[in-house]
Specification:
The complex is a heterodimer. By secondary structure, chain A is an alpha+beta fold. Chain A contains 21 helices and 33 strands. Helices cover 41% and strands 21% of the residues of chain A. Chain B is an alpha/beta fold. Chain B starts with 36 loop residues before the first strand and ends with a strand. The chains are: A alpha+beta, B alpha/beta.
């Protein structure tokens, strides 16, 4: 029988070679698949819309605050041009916070359906040829009303409520009483014929809230009650270069196309534009033009009415000057501001006692709301009402729009301030918000839309904490007028910016805060902090409008070439992944720094959730301040890509090392098994006259077959993976195998020792029970016992390592969002490796368990023949395994802890617990298997 | 055993208690049943399972009634089924068919625990080669059957007496690896007798032993029968066959 045949016959050697080959293959899996997946994930997610963020002032630390559009400026247009002229620049897109714009929502009203049916004298325009879509007179429904024929007394309670997601605040609550009833048509004779009018029922007093709210009046379809003014709402406006922004955002930036076509600064005089539109209206305008908006220098101005009406209002109040500019805006669709208007309606008797709860009419600012455009955000409807106004058909959009000119200012515009808190072991940094001044919001305007003074007593203003600073303004600006060119969807912009490499832009694309702990530090259900009423607080919503830099100059009163650019986002002229583009990006950043600007490389960065403690958030009526608690916000970790790659590569190498350790242990166990099996064979050969050297050669030849096999596989694997690590692993495995061969050859020498002295040690515990019997057996077979205990310990440690990986590999890789993605990409091979470790541990227990299986079978048979019953035999097996488990326990737990600390420090404790449980579980399982 | 007179007969009392005997009187319990072991129409067949191996019938229709004080020898060539009959008789394996009676009670009606308990009280089994537990001295090996009943300490003197009886009084602290084949066989016989067995089942006690050692074993076995112990022995040793009270020769 030649060496190859002997090698194949020896199952132990075959098993050893197979295990080592598996270890080498796993190393290839780790090195080629896992590492490649890691690199791919990092590359794909480390390069966003732009590579370099240019600011006038350097951000401190490796963690970037998300709000970079904060109105502080510092970069001039000349510097922007210089950046654009650099050969490595593909796109340089400037951005600035322009202003905070405060505007009062126009008069809210409550409409109670009071439809009197078709009447030619009242319907007016309700004929098919006068209004598009008007209902033919013969198809008007029968009259209906939610009011009674005789006037009843009602109490209306109007209130406005706002919530920041954590607490709800009632902004005002106002009550008015009076009688309301169903109107009727009154035909009166007049000179030359008769007239028809709508008259209130007899005895109706109507209902009137304090001024400037008017009273109630009947019209064609409704009884309309004027309600107290809604709170003022503040929006932010940012400036971009539309062409550069579109180049940056791609198709997601198409909403900026109308802004790109906006007229130059010298064609934006508010008076001239207002007069043009006013003249257009005076000279007559077609319905189609009314619907789509008139053509203004090549752009259809769908939302032209606000500009015209605000122009008229400003002219009347004297705000409009010769320098006033019309500012082109693309406005945000919808709002995330939580503002709800409620009107509770109760029928009461003369004594004021409630005799019928009619219901509550409610309306919130929502997706329908457009900054600068919405006229009737709070037109509430009496419960049970039907809207019959559509019977008159579409009446165009002339009536839409906010009549009162907005108030533009830079109060509380810049980004919130934070100070550093604790830093976690995984790199996450805590922050503390720095409270600013108390700001009075929810004010009433001094004058209403018709110029009448407003009764300031009808609601109290609200104090709100600001976490932002005022900005110094330029020259005093002439009152600007909003000229709306279109709308944009903030969610679409956020999506275009991507997730991993997203560097939010403050007012343009703010990062939400999520409340995670209350003021006492207790965990609370995660709640997103909604923008406050005035948007001067901690959280703000997406920009209410986007304009260009001419708009910024007009709103802020700056002249040309002022340093008003907050930041420039630069995309390098370098295609490919982050790693491929990195040299070019770094070169470009260096060139920008040479201009005296700060250039932060954001490619290779990633989001990272930062915990921020927010003190002094609110105060009660007594003036006592309360903390908000802890919020989380995504900041940006610089160089996250390199950190994640380094960390997870380290994890891979650690796993590889552990795999090798497992393979080494298994090789040791199988080698010992081989020696035991071959010892008698070696004795026979020796008896046949073989020399020690010949026997050694005979053994080494068998091992040599395995070594050649391993060398071939190792060479092939190294060539396929072309990785130094794989080559090193293969070499280490081969070395391990050769060492095992030499050890085996050495151990197969003759070593019988004749010893006839009594060997029984009286200090041994007497055998008088299954437990003491098991103890004696394990004590007799010390090597086997320790080998088995080591195997069980390795098994426990491997299970612990696997659990640690499952629990904590993302956190071990760092705190950024990229680390989570990257960890997910390498999780499968890592878990496979850890599972392989578990399998190695199990195989180890089987191999070492086989050492004494024959002896175990023999003595269990002897005990059975002596009349030990099955229960006692089971006890023997259980006690044996329990004792082995006791020895294995520290090894398993400490091993699991060690692996946990190496791979996933935050889950080390869980790893230890898992190791403990695994060893404890092994005891009954092994007891059953031995049976 | 050179002096059979050292072992005296003693019948167990009707109380059923296990009497602790001193060296001066006896170390065994006398048989109280005329036929402690009976095998009826035993057939033992191996193979023929799922593996497709052809079934081999080792023993067919074997009957045996073993009387107290009788030494019955089962002889035959290797593979003829001698050990199989012994393991069936000792209740260690179940026959393919047929019935085994211990003191008139069929094993078919007993559970595993009851068989184990009855075996401990009735049968002493000596494996081929005298299998002992490694790591335990000769004395501890002899005392092992007393562990289940918690009588290790009570039986310690008796175990020493037995080891003296089989000529190993000076080797009681030696471990199996330090004993010769014949010595291990004698320790195994002493172990089989420790609980006052009534049936000694011995498998090839003299195989691979020299003549002198074999004769010593045979002498011990023969002496036990004089105490009313029934001996069922498998062997092809001519001397053992010659001294047996009855013989079954397997073909």
């Amino acid at each position: 029988m030649n060496a190859v045949q002997r090698f194949i016959r020896s199952k132990v050697l075959l098993l050893t070679a197979a295990i080592l080959i598996a270890a080498m293959c796993l190393s290839v899996l780790v090195q080629s698949q896992s590492q490649a997946a890691l690199n791919r994930t990092v590359d794909e997610n480390s390069r966003g819309l732009y590579d370099v963020l240019v600011q006038a002032k350097a951000p401190s630390g490796a963690l970037l605050q998300p709000e970079i559009a904060n109105g502080t400026g510092g970069i001039s247009f000349e510097q922007l041009d210089s950046i654009r002229k650099l050969s490595g620049t593909a796109v340089a897109a400037p951005i600035s916070l322009v202003s905070r714009v405060t505007q009062n929502l126009e008069a809210p009203r409550l409409d109670a359906m009071d439809y009197l049916g078709y009447n030619a004298g009242l319907a007016g325009t309700a004929t098919a040829d006068q209004a598009a879509g008007a209902t033919s007179p013969d198809k008007w429904p029968a009259a209906e009303s939610v009011l009674s024929d005789t006037a009843k007394k009602y109490r209306l309670t109007a209130s406005a409520v706002s919530s920041d997601g954590v607490s709800e605040q009632t902004l005002f609550k106002s009550t008015a009483e009076g009688t309301l009833g169903k109107a009727k048509l009154v035909e009166e004779k007049a000179a030359g014929g008769s007239s028809i009018r709508i008259a209130a029922p007899q005895g109706e007093t109507g209902i009137k809230f304090p001024s400037p709210a008017g009273g109630s009046e009947h019209n064609l379809f409704n009884l309309s009650v004027s309600l107290p003014l809604a709170p003022e709402v503040t929006e932010s406006v940012v400036a971009v270069d539309p062409a550069a922004e579109r180049a940056l955002l791609g198709t997601a930036g198409d909403f900026l196309a109308p802004l790109e076509k906006a007229p130059p600064a010298d064609a934006r005089n508010a008076g001239a534009v207002g007069r043009y539109l006013e003249g257009l209206f005076s000279n007559g305008i077609g319905l189609d033009e009314l619907k789509d908006g008139p053509d203004f220098l090549g752009v259809k101005l769908k939302y032209w009415a606000p500009l015209m009406t605000q122009y008229q209002q400003a002219k009347r109040t004297g705000q409009l000057t010769a320098d006033s500019q019309a500012i082109p805006l693309v406005v945000r669709s919808g709002t995330s501001l939580d503002l709800k208007y409620n009107v509770k309606i109760e029928e009461i008797d003369d004594s004021g006692k409630v005799i019928n709860e009619v219901g509550t009419a409610t309306r919130s600012l929502d997706k329908d709301y457009l900054p600068f455009v919405s006229k009737d955000p709070f037109a509430l409807s009496w419960p049970g009402s039907t809207d019959h106004t559509s019977l008159l058909g579409a009446n165009g959009n002339f009536n839409q729009g906010l009549y009162t000119p907005a108030k533009w200012s830079t109060d509380f515009a810049s980004a919130p301030k934070y100070t550093d808190g604790e830093t976690s072991a995984n790199g996450a940094v805590d922050k503390n918000a720095v409270p600013g001044e108390w700001v009075t919001v929810n004010r009433l305007p001094e004058k209403s839309a018709n110029g009448a003074p407003v009764d300031q007593t009808q609601r109290e203003p609200v104090d709100e904490r600001s976490y932002r600073d005022n900005l110094s303004n330029g020259q005093k600006q002439a009152s600007p007028l909003a000229m709306v060119y279109g709308t944009f969807d903030p969610a679409a912009v956020a999506q275009a910016a991507g997730d991993v490499n997203k560097l939010p832009l403050g007012g343009y694309d703010p990062t939400p805060f999520t409340v995670v702990k209350d003021a006492d530090g207790k965990d609370v259900k995660s709640t997103e902090l909604k923008p406050s009423l005035s948007a001067t607080g901690l959280a703000s919503q997406s920009a209410g409008a986007i304009t260009d830099y001419y708009g910024l100059a007009a709103a802020r009163g700056y002249t040309d070439n002022a340093s008003v650019i907050d930041a420039v986002r630069v995309r390098a002229n370098a295609p490919g992944s982050w790693k491929e583009a990195q040299p070019d990006v770094e070169k470009l950043a260096a060139e920008i720094r040479d201009m005296g600007l700060e250039a932060t490389i954001v490619a290779g960065s990633a989001r990272e959730d930062t915990s921020i403690f927010v003190p002094g958030y609110s105060k009660d009526d007594a003036g006592k301040e309360s903390n908000l608690g802890t919020v989380e916000q995504s900041w940006v970790r610089q160089n996250a890509a390199e950190a994640v790659t380094g960390s997870l590569s380290g994890t891979n190498i650690t796993l590889l090392f552990l795999t090798l350790c497992g393979a080494a242990l298994l090789t040791g166990a199988s080698t010992v098994s081989y020696i035991r099996k071959r010892r008698s064979e070696a004795g026979t050969l020796r008896a046949m006259g073989w020399t020690q050297r010949r026997i050694r050669s005979w053994v080494l030849e068998e091992f040599g077959v395995g070594a050649v096999l391993l060398a071939v596989v190792g060479t092939v694997l190294s060539l396929i993976s072309w990785s130094l690590s794989t080559a090193l692993v293969c070499a280490a495995v081969l070395l391990l195998y050769v060492a095992a061969a030499l050890f085996a050859a050495q151990q197969l020498r003759h070593r019988d020792v004749i010893d006839q002295e009594p060997q029984h040690d009286e200090r041994l515990i007497p055998v008088d029970s299954p437990l003491t019997f098991a103890n004696r057996q394990l004590g007799t077979q010390k090597f086997n016992t320790i080998a088995l205990a080591v195997a069980v310990g390795v098994f426990g440690a491997a299970v612990g390592g696997l659990i640690a990986l499952l629990i904590d590999i993302p956190r071990a890789a760092g705190a950024s969002a990229l680390s989570g993605l990257a960890a997910a990409s390498v999780a499968l091979p890592s878990i496979l490796l850890a599972l392989a470790g578990v399998v190695v541990g199990l195989v180890l227990t089987l191999v070492t368990g086989r050492f004494e299986l024959n002896a175990k079978r023999q003595y269990l048979g002897i005990l059975e023949a002596m009349g030990w019953n099955p229960d006692m035999l089971r006890q023997v097996r259980l006690f044996e395994n329990a004792l082995v488990g006791t020895v294995a326990l520290p090894l398993g737990v400490l091993g699991a802890l060690g692996i946990g600390l190496l791979l996933a420090p935050y889950a080390a404790l869980w790893a230890g617990v898992a190791g403990l449980v695994a060893v404890l579980c092994w005891i009954p399982i092994a007891t059953k298997v031995v049976q | 055993m050179t002096n059979p007179t050292n072992v005296q007969r003693s019948r167990r009392g009707g109380s059923g208690e296990v009497p602790l005997q001193t060296r001066a009187n006896t170390i065994v319990k006398a048989a109280d049943h005329a036929t402690p072991l009976e095998l009826s129409d035993i057939t033992i067949r191996y193979g023929g399972g799922k593996g497709g191996a052809e079934a081999v019938s080792v023993v067919e229709g074997f009957d045996l009634t073993l009387h107290a004080g009788e030494m019955h020898c089962v002889a035959g060539r290797s593979g003829s089924g001698k050990t199989s009959i012994l393991t069936v008789g000792a209740g260690l394996t179940l026959p393919t068919s047929g019935r085994v009676f211990w003191e008139g009670d069929s094993l078919e009606t007993m559970g595993d625990d009851e068989i184990a308990d009855r075996r401990r009280a009735l049968i002493g089994y000596v494996d081929q080669g005298g299998a002992l537990i490694d790591g335990m001295s000769a004395l501890e090996n002899v005392l092992l059957p007393a562990v289940p009943d918690g009588e290790v300490e009570q039986r310690r003197d008796m175990a020493k007496d037995l080891l003296d009886l089989v000529g190993l009084g000076r080797r009681m602290r030696h471990r199996p690896a330090q004993l010769s084949g014949g010595e291990r066989q004698r320790v195994a016989i002493a172990r089989a007798l420790i609980l006052g067995t009534r049936v000694l089942v011995v498998d090839e006690p003299t195989a691979s032993l020299d003549r002198a050692s074999a004769n010593r074993i045979i002498s011990i076995l023969k002496d036990t029968t004089s105490d009313g112990i029934a001996v069922l022995v498998a062997s092809h040793d001519h001397e053992l066959v010659r001294l047996s009270d009855s013989l079954t020769e397997l073909i």
